[in-house]
Design brief:
alpha+beta; three-stranded antiparallel β-sheet; disordered N terminus
């Protein structure tokens, strides 16, 4: 749901948005408007948990990167809460005591969005495009109903991947290869 700020003479800024109480599900600030994300459903939750776990099993032991579910990232005048964001280790905001900080003031290195029923594909595509424009290297848009994944890499046009197509991943994952079928097979819980 979008809360239009254009007709409101008291339009809030990004800083004001960030002072508002968090909503559940999360709200995002894009192009001067506040959008509340849809409540995740079963498939969405499985994708999110399994992809985060798979990535972290590879990159966390080597301190190369870390995958986060539903982490607020504020950059370029917007504030997003990607379904999954992956940050290279050097981009994780660590404090002097070695613990992670609470604010992520940059675009994730890799943004993964899972399209929910009734969610606007154009809004989600815009989110990924804005992240890429502001420094993200890679974006995936997973469409469960169509069993396809739109892939965004740098300034190239998005590519549609299906079936046995191998998906691009961040280089910190080494030779890890995963296909579109592998992603959708996560729904089998095997």
């Amino acid at each position: 749901m979008a809360i239009s700020l254009e007709s409101n003479p008291n339009t809030i800024s990004l800083d004001e948005f960030l002072l508002l109480p968090e909503t559940k599900p999360a709200s995002e600030y894009i192009d001067g408007q506040v959008y509340q994300k849809p409540m995740p459903q079963f498939q969405h939750s499985i994708f999110q948990a399994e992809i985060v776990n798979s990535i972290n099993q590879i990159v966390k032991p080597k301190k190369m990167a870390f995958a986060f579910p539903e982490l607020r990232c504020s950059f370029g005048g917007i504030s997003l809460v990607p379904d999954i964001c992956v940050l290279r280790w050097q981009n994780i905001p660590f404090m002097l005591n070695g613990r992670v900080g609470n604010k992520v003031p940059l675009a994730p290195d890799w943004i993964i969005e899972i399209l929910s029923p009734g969610q606007s594909p154009l809004l989600v595509m815009n989110k990924i495009g804005l992240a890429i424009t502001n420094g993200s290297e890679l974006g995936w848009l997973i469409s469960p109903s169509q069993e396809l994944i739109m892939v965004y890499v740098g300034d190239h046009l998005p590519e549609t991947k299906r079936g046995s197509d191998i998906l691009p991943v961040l280089d910190v994952l080494g030779d890890w290869q995963i296909s579109v079928d592998n992603i959708f097979d996560l729904l089998k819980l095997q």
